[in-house]
């Protein structure tokens, strides 16, 4: 059994009240360990450690901060296999995916912000004729809270922690209680890299107790959250009256718009990936596919053939394309949406069934599922399913598809397949999203702003946007 502990002030600690939560392995449905059911007392201890470490860390030179963050990055790379296996065991994703994406990106997050902080500058303004000069200080906030979800556990956990630390803050962080393992393993890496005690503190537990305690803590001045829209709205209600800085990266229901003039084979292979990568548990997945009517039947035939060739299997198998969903409750939620689609006259073109993987019959496996829908207004086109399920329907022209793409409460990302420049400029300008990919998907440059509009959240992560979020700007005006 793997016992996960809180990482507070550089040490591993049991929850003060002595309560624990079972930790499941999605690939076989078995309990493989436990994690702390931390309370506000544990959060207070983490806050005290962070507060004590802040004066020194905030005055640590940029070169030293950079050195330590890059060292963490290097240690994650050295421990790639161990972290990838841990991530897969906790989340159900294929080890191959964790090795290729999750852990390398966690390492990149630390390396990127270890470098970015040495280039992060602010501006000055000379008040001509006033004998005055202004300069802007961008000072660290103090103790900040980072709360992350279960779909890309270490990837998203470090996407918040790295800029927070780089900017000179100290952190109280909570990973999802569903996937705590790699966050737990990160503690040793931080100690080995020489991160001073108390600069990063990781408290495990449930959202409504441990997470809530972080959000409502009066002296944790900023909250960076990634997770569901409902939870994001709740956090905003708690934090807003406390005037905390908030970064909310929430859900998505992203359109994948395919015109007949696209590079067809590139589009087809990428669309399989954008539909089912990570079992469809990425808020950036293109879960609503819109195909120009002239190629609709051809696409339907070709796409279904490729989807049927995907292998649902144990995450440890090198040829597994689709691993286990993250939990029994999530599997049931996704299955419920497939039933809703049928009730709304959707046609399940392929998939839709649970899979019993030999030897792992209690694991949470589901076939990749494609549903042909009659209207964009149906529930499976309006609500986030967050599983290996996509819908598809034809469109007649640009105006038709733009209306449908934007007619949803979310606005995170969009994908557009066309070689027509005028169409590209028009649609990318009009799509209601924070990220628009043209003739690609999930191509990420960490310098770019990351986040959504509407119900997909508030604020942007990435690049200098993240460093601005984790600092307070102060204008100093000197008359001479
Ligand atoms: O979210 P939850 P999940 C979205 C994705 C999906 C969801 C999946 O689209 O909707 O997140 O993640 C903690 N106070 N994105 O189900 O339940 C909880 O313990 C404080 C969008 O995990 O919101 C966990 O650590 N914290 C994103 C975290 O919040 C609370 C990418 C998320 O849990 C809390 C990834 C509370 N009251 C997923 N309740 C993007 N846009 O990048 C829960 N938590």
From TrEMBL:
The cross-references to PANTHER family, in alphabetical order and at most eight, read:
2-AMINOMUCONIC SEMIALDEHYDE DEHYDROGENASE
Protein family according to the UniProt entry: Belongs to the aldehyde dehydrogenase family.
GO molecular function per UniProt:
oxidoreductase activity, acting on the aldehyde or oxo group of donors, NAD or NADP as acceptor
Task: Write the record's keywords in alphabetical order, separated by commas.
Answer: NAD, Oxidoreductase
What is the active site of this protein?
249
Cite the Aldehyde dehydrogenase domain residue spans from the record.
Answer: 21-476
Identify this protein by name. Aldehyde dehydrogenase
- Its domain of life reads Bacteria
